[in-house]
Amino acid sequence: MAKRHECSREGCTITYSHKMHQHGFRHCSRLCLDVNRELDRVISRLQETENPIAQEALTLAYTTLVEIADHTSTYQEAMRLARLAESKAA
Q: 25 near 14, Cβ under 8 Å?
């Protein structure tokens, strides 16, 4: 079996091909890449700001992104199950 790599997004259980890894990919999908980038950006801004109003807004942004990450995992699992069911029906 070909080597598979784990997605870099925390909480993602999807793996991707060694060929993708060789081409520099570290996420299983564009969704995971985008969620990770946004989380990194929000965390960086939270660490830099001293403005309490900005901190509150960024904390809300962070918690919302965590929810999006959870929904992304749910979506990916549902799609995996659909592909599996379709392949068995064929």
A: no
Torsion on CA atoms 51, 57, 61, 66, rounded to nearest 10: 80
E-only strand ranges, the chain: 4-6, 15-17
Q: Strand 4-6 relative to strand 15-17: parallel, antiparallel, unpaired? A: antiparallel
Angstrom distances, CA of residue 14 to CA of 22, 38, 78: 17, 19, 12
Instruction: Quote the CA–CA distance of 60 and 78 in Å, as a whole number.
Output: 27
pTM, to two decimals: 0.83
CA distance linking residue 57 with residue 55, whole number of Å: 5
- Please report the sign of the dihedral spanned by the C-alpha atoms of residue 64, residue 69, residue 74, residue 78: positive
pLDDT digits (tens, 9 = 90+) for 61-89: 999 999 999 999 999 999 999 999 999 98
Q: In this structure, what token pair is assigned to residue 49?
A: 């700001």
